[in-house]
Amino acid sequence: MGEDSGLNWAGRRFEVTVGPVAHGGHCVARHEGRVVFVRHSLPGERVVVRVTEDRHRGFCRADAIEVLEAAPARVERPCPYSGPGRCGGCDWQHVDPAEQRRLKSAVVREQLARLAGLDDVDVTVEELPGGPLRWRSRARFAVDRSGAAGLRRHRSHDVVPLADCPITVEPAAAAVLQRQWPGAGAVDVSVDSTGAVTTTRLDRQGRPTSSRVVRPGGELPEEPAGRAERRAGGRDWEVEGTGFWQVHPAAADALVAAVAEFAGVRAGETVLDLYAGAGLFGGALAPAVGPEGRVVCVESDAGACAAADANLTDLPQAEVWQGDVDVEGLGELLAELGAPDVVVLDPPRAGAGPAVSRLLAGTGARAVVYVACDPAALARDVAAFVGAGYRLAGIRGFDAFPMTAHVECVALLVPERSTSER
Ligand SMILES: C[S@@+](CC[C@H](N)C(=O)[O-])C[C@H]1O[C@@H](n2cnc3c(N)ncnc32)[C@H](O)[C@@H]1O
């Protein structure tokens, strides 16, 4: 259907005044009775848009391709690859970093209001040290048919080849983007606290085929899987080379501090660390429960469990359970363990889900600390906790992904009757 059919707007250009920010790195505008999600814009701007996608009756997607009246917070994009139709890695390159944090705060508030019915939640997304560029210490780059590495165009499978990625730490960007990867589908890269760079080559089905670690002292070629050393929460951690770890170098410390503050763990308590990865939160909280207490870290990935086991050997009160956090697995665990005093959960992007959230609320834990990288999933699960007798007693947001629309939140849920407030 073309522009003139009147049914599908793809490719159409028109002027709009841009409204509020929405979840997903765009703002909301209206045109001829339809909602238009506009990328590369800011609230209050007058822009010309080009519709990039129209698959829904209710809304279409568009890029701001010309700015007629700019918002005061608009800046020159520091990355030469970002902009309408170009690399899809960042959403807010055209926005002053302080304003990016205000936009993210507004999104968290809006999601909690809309999905959890909580109006006027007070949250101000906090800056992490290090500035808005060169923070990404772990990344996956796509590889095109010619062997060039880059990132995908927004909502597309097309790879935009890059010679650099200014939000990625320089050694990681250089290790991947300054060479060719013929035959590969993608490359994972991470740089650890010692400066060691691990690159893992993936085939077109996403399976790792080889790994290489380059330490500041020299290269260890073709290791089966590199080990990365990390420092956070006053402890040293070892994780799989490109296995899960907070991407921003300052994030793990900031999250550990926020989780510890919200959890307020006391000697003798039982703590559940769900989706535990290499044991970051469980290991950080274990000293506070002391020898009479117990910390159980639950994680599905075998490699992460092995890392957690090794990381927690000096903490006999901490143990690692390999298994899925789902209604069945969690039900079995709770039957064996009894009710925990504190639950920390840090699920992947999709969140824990309402069923797991209700099961956790059913334990009556005095504090549930929910670490979330998607405010929509968080708000949906907060709604499940609220429906099961908990209330939101505190929330903090961290700008752990500057230049992108992503935000990390830590929320404290307590039983309705509890007087705890943070
Ligand atoms: C966001 S990471 C958090 C890791 C850790 N808390 C940290 O901060 O380093 C989520 C973790 O959950 C694990 N995971 C994903 N789905 C799971 C499930 N259903 N049950 C248990 N673990 C799961 C992943 O392997 C990953 O290690």
Summarize the structure.
By secondary structure, the protein is α+β, with helices and mostly antiparallel strands. It is 22% helix and 32% strand.
Number of strands: 23
Q: What is the tally of helical segments?
A: 8
- Share in β-strands: 25-35%
CATH class of the largest domain reads: Alpha Beta
Radius of gyration: 23 Å
Count of domain modules? 3
Which hetero compounds are present in the coordinates?
S-adenosylmethionine
What descriptors fit this protein?
TRAM_dom; 22% helix; binds S-adenosylmethionine; OB fold (Dihydrolipoamide Acetyltransferase, E2P); 7-stranded antiparallel beta sheet; S-adenosyl-L-methionine; 3 domains; 8 helices; rRNA (uridine-C5-)-methyltransferase activity; 422 residues; alpha+beta; 23S rRNA (Uracil(1939)-C(5))-methyltransferase; methyltransferase; Rossmann fold
Structure description:
The chain folds into three domains: about 70 residues, OB fold (Dihydrolipoamide Acetyltransferase, E2P); about 190 residues, 3-Layer(aba) Sandwich (Rossmann fold), CATH 3.40.50; about 100 residues, no CATH class. The protein contains eight helices and 23 strands. The strands form four sheets. The chain has an eight-stranded mixed sheet with strand order 7-22-23-21-20-17-18-19, sandwiched between helices. The radius of gyration is 23 Å and the shape is globular. The N and C termini lie far apart (about 55 Å). The N terminus is likely disordered. The site of S-adenosylmethionine has 19 residues, from helix 4 and strand 18.
